[in-house]
Amino acid sequence: MQNFLRLWHDSGIYHLDLGQGVMLLVGLLLLFLAIRKGFEPLLLVPIGFGAILANIPGAGLSLSAVENAIASGYPDVLAQIAQVLGASADAGMQALNDAYKHAPAAVQADAYRLATDLGYANGMLYSFYTVAIGSGVAPLVIFMGVGAMTDFGPLLANPKTLFLGAAAQFGIFATVLGAVGLSVTGVIDFSIQDAAAIGIIGGADGPTAIYVASILAPELLGAIAVAAYSYMALVPLIQPPIMRALTNDDERKIRMEQMRVVSKREKIVFPLILLILVALILPSAAPLLGMFCFGNLMRECGVVERLSDTSQNALINITTIFLGLSVGSKLAADKFLDPKTLGILALGIIAFGIGTAMGVLTAKFMNLFCKHKINPLIGSAGVSAVPMAARVSNKVGLEANPQNYLLMHAMGPNVAGVIGSAVAAGVMISIVSSL
Amino acid sequence: MQNFLRLWHDSGIYHLDLGQGVMLLVGLLLLFLAIRKGFEPLLLVPIGFGAILANIPGAGLSLSAVENAIASGYPDVLAQIAQVLGASADAGMQALNDAYKHAPAAVQADAYRLATDLGYANGMLYSFYTVAIGSGVAPLVIFMGVGAMTDFGPLLANPKTLFLGAAAQFGIFATVLGAVGLSVTGVIDFSIQDAAAIGIIGGADGPTAIYVASILAPELLGAIAVAAYSYMALVPLIQPPIMRALTNDDERKIRMEQMRVVSKREKIVFPLILLILVALILPSAAPLLGMFCFGNLMRECGVVERLSDTSQNALINITTIFLGLSVGSKLAADKFLDPKTLGILALGIIAFGIGTAMGVLTAKFMNLFCKHKINPLIGSAGVSAVPMAARVSNKVGLEANPQNYLLMHAMGPNVAGVIGSAVAAGVMISIVSSL
Amino acid sequence: MQNFLRLWHDSGIYHLDLGQGVMLLVGLLLLFLAIRKGFEPLLLVPIGFGAILANIPGAGLSLSAVENAIASGYPDVLAQIAQVLGASADAGMQALNDAYKHAPAAVQADAYRLATDLGYANGMLYSFYTVAIGSGVAPLVIFMGVGAMTDFGPLLANPKTLFLGAAAQFGIFATVLGAVGLSVTGVIDFSIQDAAAIGIIGGADGPTAIYVASILAPELLGAIAVAAYSYMALVPLIQPPIMRALTNDDERKIRMEQMRVVSKREKIVFPLILLILVALILPSAAPLLGMFCFGNLMRECGVVERLSDTSQNALINITTIFLGLSVGSKLAADKFLDPKTLGILALGIIAFGIGTAMGVLTAKFMNLFCKHKINPLIGSAGVSAVPMAARVSNKVGLEANPQNYLLMHAMGPNVAGVIGSAVAAGVMISIVSSL
Amino acid sequence: MQDTLMQQGIDLMIYGMGTVLVFLTLLVIATLIMSRFVMRFFPDPVVAEPSRPAIQTGRTAEVDPAVRSAIEKAIALHRARR
Amino acid sequence: MQDTLMQQGIDLMIYGMGTVLVFLTLLVIATLIMSRFVMRFFPDPVVAEPSRPAIQTGRTAEVDPAVRSAIEKAIALHRARR
Amino acid sequence: MQDTLMQQGIDLMIYGMGTVLVFLTLLVIATLIMSRFVMRFFPDPVVAEPSRPAIQTGRTAEVDPAVRSAIEKAIALHRARR
Ligand code: NA
Ligand code: NA
Ligand code: NA
């Protein structure tokens, strides 16, 4: 009988609270969007599944050993943990969790050892998160793989499209200001770290967003990643109205001239140029852009095809699986079911909109000076969201003129946007982490 | 001359004791069985090789840094270690090893730091074990890959075969009772944790057995894994006599009706149904069955083929290599050359036998009620041992009736057995770890 | 304005010192040699890129958290670090770094926790180094992959070519003596550990060199790895003059008899014979040769093709990427721009030369006794540098006699050289680490 | 103590085997309901493939699309050249 | 405090966006110089392929050389057999 | 001290090179015995392939069985269609 009670007390239904139930549905919704609607499935399938796993009541898969010990609720366990943390024995579980989170690293290590002595272990997803994201390695490895998949040819054929990739990052910083504004006006309480991490959603680049959020605002990582990937999938809905509103029919019909052929050597030298510029000007962007350039150099140099292949396939796939599950582990009820998440979702879509608009307007502005006119529709591709945004540019261009293939031309600003948001990530980390 | 002596003292022959010599032969025997006899070679080749590496005298590849320091036998090293462990300086190496093993985590950490300061390091296999099995991650990743290789179609076409997969798990619990009985009667001293870990051999599923043993009885992990994989390879010898003894010729000739076609969407929803049931009823099975369902969802959802491919190939292969070597590292002489191993081997084969018998008998029992008769030969496939047990059902069926292809029908209970033993693993961990 | 100053202070140019500038050029030079000149690109592309990343001024990618905290230079940070390390608060950054490096492991752990509390983190490359090389795992995994790529057929057809592989390792030990000589005569100050690690360059085997250097002389790892891989690429320039000088035309024209066919079973048993010999005679070579034999057994046994494939492709490629970046992280200005590097480069080429000469001379010596004459040109392949050195033997042989195909015959000593240098590595680690 | 161990073993058996049976029974029920529901309300647009062999122990048997298209191109080319 | 937060946000915007613009402008300049330099002094021995679609989201589209050669051999064999 | 270093170097050379020679000599002997033993008592059922080039630096050259069968099928189909 005692065992039956134990099984019942160990069962999920016994522990289920409303929040976890809602989060299980959120996980299923993400899976539905990914599988049925094709929303960035490579990331949202693992994230959605991870969200379900993280919210299995009583399993504690996303908790550390200490949090699992606290969650057990046994008074003698709580008392021992409290003693190590220097908290009051009857402080309550929430207070102990807070005390643990803010304790110095040495105290956390002591508490961890005590928890393992008491038989508690880190949850599976917590371990994945620590290795994949806590260490920062997974977004960097994915960035390396993305670099190995990126062809800078269209950018090199027309380098001034880099300006479009720069302009579209204005969405990032406008959103920072928006988040700060919400906080100042008392609507939602965001710190400057939170604001910077939310802004990076406007970079429309998944690994960059995860990397920045894991450093500046790990609590918000789940919501930020979900927003970033969802809006990247929604780019075909978000961007066209803005693009049409800011251009007239003549502008949309502009035909761009055939691109010049880019030589192999230019492609080999470009990642090195970019790397040296990063080294000299913005070292804080070195991890992200360094790995990106490394992947691209492996791709273009032509002598390490084995390594390039692996970084585009086995390595990026393995990393994606664990990155996705780890992000999902941050979709716990108490973090995600919070007004902040609504704020993040609202600010994120504004960021995409502003980025799109700035890209288009900057293209029109450049046409005032340049001899070779740019079709402003390719400006919107500067937000990144590779390669979706470039396809959107192409599609809207074809609507205006069925002969006007913009895809190649839009790839320039598209990959420029990746560089732009990585630069923005570097500068934000540099400024914010020292405030 | 001193150097020559040192080389001689460092050589393997100088250190070789009888146990290690025997274990080297055991390792070679496992390799022979794997390579020549085809006994589950994907696991037994790495396990056998790991067993040889672990028993290289004087190399200490499967020892931690502290154990290596103790094994050096230098009196001043022993004295310092003893001081940290709070043991007597002349306690002897065995006593120090025991003191280390039972010390609190904080003391172990201190001892580890001291050992590294003295120039000792964790052995290669010890590091592999810590990362692959100690963390629990390798069996889970393999389970994900197995999920990505599993087609639930036959199970979905005929869900009542799940009962066969349930019944065959009786072998697990009967074996637990057997192990307890051996202990109570004083034959071999097994704890309840040991008994549960031994029982899981009856689950006929390698990663599940390794996962449970690593949590409940790491000392016995080597013997349990070897027994599990060996008996899985021996299924074509173990099962047919039992199957023939419990059925008559008419029963063996029963032809099962053609399976219905299972839709893609059913296959997508099934792993989610299973996951939700696990979440609500048995959270302690969530790591194993969660990863299994995740792999299967990646397979069936059709939008993440990259990830599914990688989890079925590169990722599962890499993990298998290190899992096998890690299991082999637990085949040290002092652990394996023990009466317990004989007990484990004997109980393991009993477990397989009882599971097989219960599967067949349950199929006959179900035929008393069901309209669509089940060929009782597919009941034996409920032990898991995928896909060997299903092939055995097919082969014995063909002997009775050369037109009677049971393979597809047997795949239903076969994969049901995987679910059944993962459920059994969850409930055993839940009950035992709180006793 | 303050932020602008901060950005400027964070920029690379502000921090750039001459050493780092030179090292950036060294990194670019390595990339040029790898990409344009084809110098072992699989390793030198990642190493060169890692060297650039490691020398990005102000980024601290190759520094630990504590070193990054010290490098920040904030007086209050330095004071706290100094207190933990038991150093004087105004000791200066260099003294603190030294104190940290030589502190006991427990103090290092305290300093690390303090640094993380202060907001500093391990650099990306430092993390890669710790996981890939510090743990010793990356060279071992690469050795496993090399084993899975190696065919011992030519060696088994003519086992006495093993003597050539043994003789060529004389280059290793002559170089040790050379390094010791430089130290005794006061030219460059090498310890016996340094000398042993430098000597292993003469083994002409990358992973072995990295493995030994990471254990005996981590400070010199960068220079040793660069020297080893560069000279392996230069084998077609280094060896032929020596080979021609030590042989006359008649010797170079010796035609070797057709090799016998080697059976599958011999190939399966050979790695086990080698493993058992290692176990009995030289346990300190067990990690390297154990993994090598494991890879080869997976290749030859024919029942684990999945694992063999993965260890030859995805796994070795992934490991190579991180190994290369990690080696590059050791190319910091203060370590590499040192007279020791010049000494290492000079000694390394001498090691290759002596090894080549000893291989050729031993082949001539063996011809004094053997019935079946050996073409002395295959002796040079005994240095390893697989498969480049064997190709060089073949090429020089064809010059003397256009019908004289030596490639297959040279593969015997070539792979024997791999075994020989791994044995040498084991014996050096065994002797040196106990001096 | 030994009585207790025996008791623990029996408890483990009863509650363990019970849980397995209850869980898999619920799974049978849930699966039947799900299958009926899906077949009724969300039938596959086209008929799905017949159920394949359950566990593939080797690599996926399907040919890579790139390979298949290469073969088709090669054959088309070959046919065109004749 | 709230003023400070606003100020921090504005600072972040000005210095952040400024850095992005300056960095990418320098990159445009450096790229133009590099391209001109490479095209003038180190032209590719043969003309390079036209720029491909920028990011391949799936596997590399090229067929493995081994596969291609197998196809070619198969077709050659096939042709020879006729 | 410097004498000691020189002495250590010489020791390392003598014992190191000695071990390498002894080890590889034993390996030669063990290999010869093993080969004779295997060839005499356990000859391969069929003759093995001639020894291949020792280390393959690239991917395995063999074509994937799935690919080969796809090619064969494609060609069979092509032939059938004519
Ligand atoms: Na962007
Ligand atoms: Na089972
Ligand atoms: Na060598």
UniProtKB/TrEMBL annotation, chains A, B, C:
The keyword Glycosyltransferase does not apply. The chain crosses the membrane at residues 12-35, 42-66, 126-150, 162-188, 268-294, 344-363, 415-433. Its cofactor is Na(+). It is found in: Cell membrane. The keyword Translocase applies. Its EC number is 7.2.4.2. It is an enzyme of class 7 (translocase). Keywords: Cell membrane, Ion transport, Membrane, Sodium, Sodium transport, Translocase, Transmembrane, Transmembrane helix, Transport. It is a multi-pass membrane protein. It catalyses: oxaloacetate + 2 Na(+)(in) + H(+) = pyruvate + 2 Na(+)(out) + CO2. Belongs to the GcdB/MmdB/OadB family. Heterotrimer of an alpha, a beta and a gamma subunit. Catalyzes the decarboxylation of oxaloacetate coupled to Na(+) translocation. This is Oxaloacetate decarboxylase beta chain. The lineage of its organism: Bacteria, Pseudomonadati, Pseudomonadota, Gammaproteobacteria, Cellvibrionales.
Automatic annotation (TrEMBL), chains D, E, F:
The chain crosses the membrane at residues 12-33. It catalyses: oxaloacetate + 2 Na(+)(in) + H(+) = pyruvate + 2 Na(+)(out) + CO2. It is a single-pass membrane protein. It holds the Pfam family OAD_gamma. It is found in: Cell membrane. Its cofactor is Na(+). Keywords: Cell membrane, Ion transport, Membrane, Sodium, Sodium transport, Translocase, Transmembrane, Transmembrane helix, Transport. The keyword Cytoplasm does not apply. It is an enzyme of class 7 (translocase). Its EC number is 7.2.4.2. HAMAP family: OadG. Heterotrimer of an alpha, a beta and a gamma subunit. Catalyzes the decarboxylation of oxaloacetate coupled to Na(+) translocation. Belongs to the OadG family. NCBIfam families: oadG_fam (TIGR01195). This is Probable oxaloacetate decarboxylase gamma chain. The gene is oadG.
